[in-house]
């Protein structure tokens, strides 16, 4: 599995061989879909919550006696049929949306997502990614250089990279780099993630996957046990 290696100026400087166990896996759409649904469900936060009659404040005293008033029988002013009372069958925080997926299935879906980026020519491998200063302008220039060359390789017009904009890019770093994180956080449609924290949703949410060559070794060490 050979891919081109680029430097930060966007020039091709050689080729690298990627591990086929990670970057050359046949796609299974059903498995990838299951992994995405599971991750999104486990990330879901339960916000909507209504109080039933036991949670609403007040209503401890019987509003009037049981018989002899001519009115209907009531035991609490916080009954669901009263204004200001509890809610019947409303949404509560006790709802559970979490799903389970086997570790091997989750890892396989991750490899399939990575392989799809390589096959679709949406994978960019750099020799290194370094910044002397945490400047957004410098980071933007690196991205422009790389994707200008990539657009020509994919036989696309240069207008696909309009001035001042970049396509959606997920940058995978071998380890945390404060300068790169600070330089890229103000650029739209850019996200940075560590190589040992990859997930299917982030990979599929961005058009391109960009990583320095060192990150491939971290991925191999983390996920090929």
UniProtKB/TrEMBL annotation:
InterPro entries: Ribosomal_uL4, Ribosomal_uL4-like, Ribosomal_uL4_dom_sf
One of the GO BP terms on file: translation
Residue span of region Disordered: 47-77
Signal peptide residues on this chain, from the entry's feature table: none
Positions with biased composition (Basic residues): 59-76
Basic and acidic residues bias: start-end ranges: 49-58
Pfam families xref list: Ribosomal_L4
Superkingdom to which the source organism belongs: Bacteria
Keyword line: Ribonucleoprotein, Ribosomal protein, RNA-binding, rRNA-binding
Family assignment from sequence similarity: Belongs to the universal ribosomal protein uL4 family.
Record-linked PANTHER family: 50S RIBOSOMAL PROTEIN L4, LARGE RIBOSOMAL SUBUNIT PROTEIN UL4M
Functional description taken from the UniProt entry: One of the primary rRNA binding proteins, this protein initially binds near the 5'-end of the 23S rRNA. It is important during the early stages of 50S assembly. It makes multiple contacts with different domains of the 23S rRNA in the assembled 50S subunit and ribosome.
Subunit annotation: Part of the 50S ribosomal subunit.
UniProt-recorded name of the protein: Large ribosomal subunit protein uL4
The encoding gene: rplD
